[in-house]
Amino acid sequence: MQSFTYERAASAEQAAAAVAARPDAKFISGGTNLLDLMKLEIERPAHLVDISRLPLDRIEETAEGGLRVGAQVRNSDLAADPRVRSRYPMLTQALLAGASGQIRNKASTSGNLLQRTRCPYFYDRNMPCNKREQGSGCAALQGFNRMHAVLGASEACIAVHSSDMAVAMSGLDARIETISPGGETRTIPIGDFHRLPEATPHVETVLGHGEMIAAVTLPSPPPGRQVYRKVRDRASYAFALVSVAAIVETSGDRIRSARIAMGGVAAKPWRATEAERTLAGAAASDGAFTDAAEAALAGAVGHGGNDFKIPLAKRTMRHTLAAAAESA
Amino acid sequence: MAKTDNRSGPTRRTVLEGGVATGVLLATGIPVDAEPADTVTAAASPTPVPTMPMSLRINARDLAVELDPRTTLLDALRNHLGLTGSKKGCDHGQCGACTVLVDGRRINSCLTLAAMHEGDEITTVEGLAEGDRLHPVQAAFVARDGFQCGYCTPGQICSAVGMLGEAKAGWPSHASADVAAASVALTDAEIRERMSGNICRCAAYPNIVAAIRDAAEEA
Ligand SMILES: Cc1cc2nc3c(=O)[nH]c(=O)nc-3n(C[C@H](O)[C@H](O)[C@H](O)COP(=O)(O)OP(=O)(O)OC[C@H]3O[C@@H](n4cnc5c(N)ncnc54)[C@H](O)[C@@H]3O)c2cc1C
Ligand code: SF4
Ligand code: FES
Ligand code: FES
């Protein structure tokens, strides 16, 4: 690990200013992703601003009937909150499908959104990787790429975003609130927060340097039944091959509306808007779910090792939609 | 076998001596980071590695230490405070051997900095027993033979103590059919899922699950 200096932030504004003041400074929250990468010298901050004790650890009701989740709320506390369990069950399911009990006790809401890819070449400093080292190439394109993206990838990078929580939040239209060094705040819809790789895979979000996430707001829960399904190589403690978060609202045997987000398929939580359009007004049947899955994966491109993800994602979506429509 | 060894590389004896020397330094409490990368940095730079004073509360004792900010909580415990009960398996959050309790909650001590825990109440496996009386989870592991080599055991035990608290508070898990249900029954499937952050290389899982089941029933 490279040497660094450490400070505990006194306030959100002071933390943002402290990071903004130095190009080589970073926030540290739970540390479960940052320290992992620092040990391998993939991340090399010279100064750490510890924001883990800032009073941003509350979950509050909002005027619109939703919840405002502080950036420092731990993944385990968010999953266990009775309001989240009853009103946003797919968010609890997604959180509990991620990592381990120990990691969820440490991981923060903001750190989870900003966790970096698990691409094995990103982790291996002997291999070319445009995300780790701009312009060095992408070892995954011709390499071992069964964990990689089938949607929204580029010639420069085919890595996926590995968060489960963010997939559920995408289906729930969460909004991310930030605070900048001068104290200004802004709100970013989750769909606009993560960036696709294009030619600059090292730029992963729209955040500026020193801009700090303060909270994530969940709008009031949409009508319909929520389900999160994750498919992985072992039953627990593994990253997703594919995951689907679905909310299906039915009326009789018809679907009124659906919201679908996919994980493990792209560099960001992937909102399947085409599939949602296909389902609106359709009869709740396997035919409709199959059409939706086809629409969602219409633009998918495999890279050899991950070709299987395309049919796997379709089947997972059909299955998840059927489960959400069933007892709606 | 030749009696004299003229190879220029390190012999088994010099390697062993190096190991002994490190052990002595550790025993005297002089901060030594055993990681080769850090040793190289220290040797290459003329200025000593900067340290920061911190005070850690571990097993109900306040300890003042002076550490390199890079020191993880796990390395602080093992290399600087003589608390070697917490084990280093992977050093990357993947095995659970380093699990400790911070304010009663289980975390991986390898993925956190010692400096981040000033002001916290840290409990390691050494702090679970009350005098000669083992913690019920420790006693259950002994009674059920919940181990083979024992390397993962301190992490398993600390993790189980934290996990039983979570279940008592009604926290659901990935194995729970209804996440909104107010309470959970700790079935074997629930125990296995909730303990998936602790890997056992000897695969002593059946007895680990039995021990935790016993401890849960007793509590
Ligand atoms: C073994 C293992 C298995 C895992 N499995 C899963 C899994 O199955 N599913 C899953 O979703 N995740 C998984 N994870 C990842 C885990 O969810 C993340 O490590 C965790 O959520 C990161 O949160 P943190 O608070 O520890 O972030 P940190 O490591 O503290 O920070 C991560 C990044 O976010 C930045 N940051 C943090 N907070 C802010 C803020 N408020 N504003 C601006 N920047 C900020 C930091 O500077 C850093 O760059 C796993 C991790 C491990 C180690
Ligand atoms: S897929 Fe992205 S992260 Fe992986 S090697 Fe290619 S550029 Fe790097
Ligand atoms: S040593 Fe910490 S999880 Fe393996
Ligand atoms: S008892 Fe040997 S690793 Fe678990």
From TrEMBL, chain A:
What are the protein's UniProt keywords? FAD, Flavoprotein
Q: Where is the FAD-binding PCMH-type domain?
A: 1-223
What name does the UniProt record give this protein? Xanthine dehydrogenase
Gene3D superfamilies recorded: 3.30.465.10, CO dehydrogenase flavoprotein, C-terminal domain, Uridine Diphospho-n-acetylenolpyruvylglucosamine Reductase, domain 2
GO molecular function of the protein, one example? oxidoreductase activity
Task: Say which species the protein is native to.
Answer: Mesorhizobium mediterraneum
Q: Which domain of life is it from?
A: Bacteria
UniProtKB/TrEMBL annotation, chain B:
What Gene3D superfamilies does the annotation carry? 3.10.20.30, [2Fe-2S]-binding domain
The source's domain of life comes to: Bacteria
- Coiled coil where? none
Q: Name one Pfam family in it.
A: Fer2
Name all 2Fe-2S ferredoxin-type domain ranges. Answer: 52-128
Keywords of this protein's UniProt record, alphabetized? Answer: 2Fe-2S, Iron, Iron-sulfur, Metal-binding, Oxidoreductase
* InterPro entries noted in UniProt: 2Fe-2S-bd (IPR002888), 2Fe-2S-bd_dom_sf (IPR036884), 2Fe-2S_ferredoxin-like_sf (IPR036010), 2Fe-2S_ferredoxin-type (IPR001041), 2Fe2S_fd_BS (IPR006058), Aldehyde_Oxdr_Iron-Sulfur (IPR052914), Beta-grasp_dom_sf (IPR012675), TAT_signal (IPR006311)
Q: GO molecular-function annotation terms?
A: 2 iron, 2 sulfur cluster binding; metal ion binding; oxidoreductase activity, acting on the aldehyde or oxo group of donors
Task: Report whether Metal-binding shows up as a keyword of the record.
Answer: yes
| PANTHER family xrefs | OXIDOREDUCTASE WITH IRON-SULFUR SUBUNIT, OXIDOREDUCTASE, IRON-SULPHUR BINDING SUBUNIT-RELATED-RELATED
What name does the UniProt record give this protein?
Aldehyde dehydrogenase iron-sulfur subunit
Organism encoding this protein? Mesorhizobium mediterraneum
